[in-house]
Design goal:
Layout (H helix, E strand, L loop, with lengths): L6 H13 L4 H22 L9 H13 L4 H20 L26 H10 L6 H16 L3 H5 L6 E2 L4 E5 L5 E5 L2 H17 L19 H12 L10 H14 L4 H8 L4 H4 L1 H17 L4
Helix pairs in contact: 1-2, 2-4, 6-8, 6-10, 10-13
Amino acid sequence: MELSNISELQAFLDYLKFEKRYARHTISSYASDLAFFYEFIAAQYELERAADIQASMIRGWLASMKEQGHSAKSINRRISAVKSFYRFLQRKGIVTNTPTAMLVAPKVSKRLPVYVEVKDLETLFSHVEFPDSWTGRVERLIFALFYATGMRLSELTGLKETQVDLSKQQLKILGKGNKERIIPMTSELKKLVEDYIAEKKSVSADLNAAHLLVSDKGKPLHPRYVQGVVKRYLSQVTTIDKKSPHVLRHSFATHLMNNGAELNAVKELLGHSSLAATQIYTHNTIDKLKEIHARAHPKS
């Protein structure tokens, strides 16, 4: 079923884009999840209007996903998308009662965030050679920004030069829902960014793009390219299974917590809306303390 044929769904996606100002990939995720929902409803019940869909049908959709082996995390994300959609329709007066009110989401087993050890990142920055070229300098700066700031992939690829304040040694990050936060730069990161911008302006007029990080042709970096860069270099220093930009974000937060940073401070730096999202890093901290205790205590 084409999204363009469903006016109420398109209205919701427009709302996310123009009023909520969600990132493009977030809207794409909502669109995909809601299309998945509508396809099931259309196939099973031959319905297209949200107002005609009943709670029992949505429970059937939920049961179908469980039977097909979809993960609890994936199911919960889709449920969340459908609930948001119906809240929107209720506010607009398109539906009076939402069939998702009594919907119970499956429990998700909590996984501790995977992170790269400090020694491995020190090896990366001190001993791994980045090419002596524009591409090499961009790739090194990608790692420096991720690890020194904990920013998300979308925040890095969307980072503009105007968000860099070298005099105050800080970055203004535009996070989820266009929420701004200020992140301080280390002296080392400031020097890297300063040198990079100076070279960017002198190399070619094509590289004077608004985006901070650009290719040798002056184009903004594609998220998939950045993911590939991170995986390629992390493969040289660590054997952890997951090697992604988000793992560097986890590393940033975990290393801060392991060195005594306050939970609220880490929350603000990460741009989390609640402490609950940040508290996952306390578990890694406790594990680290246990490890230190086992190594250092004479009675261990």
